[in-house]
UniProtKB/TrEMBL annotation:
CDD domains membership: LbH_gamma_CA_like
InterPro entries registered for this protein in UniProt: Hexapep, LbH_gamma_CA-like, Transf_Hexapept/Carb_Anhydrase, Trimer_LpxA-like_sf
Pfam families to which the protein is assigned, alphabetical: Hexapep
Protein name: Anhydrase
Source species of the chain: Catenovulum maritimum
SUPFAM superfamilies xrefs: Trimeric LpxA-like enzymes (SSF51161)
């Protein structure tokens, strides 16, 4: 089975130095930028809206990426936009939300429609970001629903970029 599939004649667009694991499934209107990586068993459907993944971002094993269709209540629906240098932990679910740059989404976290996660944020494992919630830059958020826990340290902010670099190095080894 082909893991890159068209939907309504739109096929995912993958940068030449991105890593796409053969076991993941990417469908439809998806753009993956330079040095990014999609790991085993990720399912991403850009069928009723679009998905963009920035530079040096990594989507780890078993994560689910989806979007929301336009409707009379929401004329544009909700695409899924992921910035640069983002680490999405194992089994995370991102649905029709905006993820800024230098963000860590913890394992098993869920981010729902219309949510906005600004740059330089850590979201703890297992957290739930409610629809239309905004997570402010520079903080750790945790819980279900996610709440601001504390300001990030300088070392944690530096780690956000380092985590992305670590995955660029790993994807190069796979390539």
């Amino acid at each position: 089975m082909n893991n890159l599939r068209a939907f309504k004649k739109i096929t995912p667009t993958i940068a030449d130095n991105a890593y796409i694991d053969p076991s993941c499934v990417l469908i439809g209107d998806i753009v993956i930028d330079q040095d990014s990586s999609i790991w085993p068993l990720v399912a991403a459907r850009g069928d009723v809206n679009y998905i963009t993944i920035g530079k040096r971002s990594n989507i780890q094993d078993g994560s689910i990426l989806h979007v929301t269709r336009s409707s009379s209540a929401n004329s544009k629906g909700y695409p899924l936009i992921i910035g640069d240098d983002v680490t999405v932990g194992h089994k995370a679910m991102l649905h029709g939300c905006y993820i800024g740059s230098r963000v860590l989404i913890g394992m098993g976290a869920i981010v729902l429609d219309g949510a906005i996660i600004e740059d330089d944020v850590m979201l703890a494992a297992g957290s739930l970001v409610a629809p239309n919630k905004k997570l402010e830059s520079g903080y750790l958020y945790k819980g279900s629903p996610a709440v601001q826990a504390r300001k990030l340290t300088e070392a944690e902010i530096q780690f956000l970029k380092q985590s992305a670099i670590n995955y660029v190095e790993l994807k190069d080894e796979y390539l």
